[in-house]
């Protein structure tokens, strides 16, 4: 298999938006993969989740070459063992993922770095170059208990932006990885207003964005417009769609993200929003190599459900040219 994409750091001068291809254009700048999330995996260990060997077998069977690590500890954390398990299935790792609460200020740095360093070390050892950074939730993902105010104070925004820049700098210098901050439902970086505020306040040479099409639509954002406006900041993609009818009920009832997923708010393409083909063409138009990782978000789910969905999704993306 070929080596992973070597996209320039966010803010590099060659990350200019080109004309968006139309028709049956080949999306040759996108590296399509999937993640444990598409198999209903949200936690390192949960009896309702498929065993990790089954995930690796099925993600390869579905036609994907790239995977993410998922929650740290779900896949083997010994690099030699994980390289053996992935290599004999023709798989490679595109990124690791961490959760952070940097808006809480310097007091959380040591705890944050302890978690980040474990994931970053394994990510680097697997030959990947990206670390997806997800902000902490402001309400409990299962119980809907309000943990924090959903609106940050100016001081908390400063902690968030400066802390993220510090994290990006440390991760790059120590591990050679680039971070991609992931706007996420029920976090302080969610829809258009907060994403723009975050990007405008952080250094584009350090902080990239992981555009998750499903989460951004869930929070009212337009993925194509985000790519057109902040294309130089897009360092990574997550692909998913929302069901607008289910989402309307979720919003009306004020459901947290976890129960919303259990209700089916995320659906396989092409049945939801946003339409993925225009997003893919816009991303291709950036003129850089990007990972585009499918994340189906369907925890918990029947263990026999993910593979057929994954196969159909891969077939759909091939039909889009990816």
TrEMBL record:
Residues 56-259 form the Xylose isomerase-like TIM barrel domain. The lineage of its organism: Bacteria, Bacillati, Actinomycetota, Actinomycetes, Kitasatosporales. It holds the Pfam family AP_endonuc_2. SUPFAM superfamilies: Xylose isomerase-like. InterPro entries: IolE/XylAMocC-like, Xyl_isomerase-like_sf, Xyl_isomerase-like_TIM-brl. This is TIM barrel protein. It comes from the Bacteria.
């Amino acid at each position: 298999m070929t080596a992973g994409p070597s996209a320039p750091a966010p803010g590099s001068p060659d990350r200019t938006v080109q004309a968006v291809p139309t028709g049956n254009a080949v999306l040759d700048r996108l590296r399509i993969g999937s993640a444990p999330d598409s198999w209903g995996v949200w936690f390192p260990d949960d009896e309702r989740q498929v065993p990790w060997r089954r995930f690796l077998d099925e993600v390869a069977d579905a036609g994907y070459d790239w995977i993410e690590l998922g929650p740290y500890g779900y896949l083997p954390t010994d690099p030699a063992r994980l390289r053996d398990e992935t290599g004999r299935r023709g798989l490679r790792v595109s990124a690791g993922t961490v959760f952070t609460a940097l808006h809480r200020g310097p007091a959380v740095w040591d705890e944050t770095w302890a978690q980040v360093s474990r994931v970053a070390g394994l990510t680097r050892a697997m030959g990947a170059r990206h670390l997806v950074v997800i902000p902490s939730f402001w309400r409990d993902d299962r119980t809907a208990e309000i943990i924090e105010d959903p609106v940050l104070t100016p001081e908390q925004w400063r902690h968030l932006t400066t802390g993220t820049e510090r994290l990006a700098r440390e991760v790059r210098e120590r591990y050679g990885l680039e971070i991609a901050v992931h706007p996420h439902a029920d976090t302080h970086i969610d829809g258009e207003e907060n994403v723009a505020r975050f990007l405008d306040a952080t250094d584009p040479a350090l902080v990239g964005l992981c555009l998750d099409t499903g989460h951004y639509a869930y929070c009212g954002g337009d993925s194509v417009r985000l790519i057109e406006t902040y294309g130089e900041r897009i360092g990574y993609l997550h692909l998913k769609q929302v069901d607008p009818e289910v989402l309307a009920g979720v919003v009306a009832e004020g459901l947290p993200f976890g129960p919303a997923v259990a209700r089916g708010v995320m659906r396989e393409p092409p049945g939801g929003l946003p339409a993925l083909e225009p997003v893919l063409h816009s991303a291709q138009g950036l003129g850089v190599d990007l990972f585009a990782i499918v994340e189906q978000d369907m925890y918990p789910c029947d263990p026999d459900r993910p593979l057929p969905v994954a196969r159909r999704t891969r077939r759909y993306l091939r039909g889009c040219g990816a």
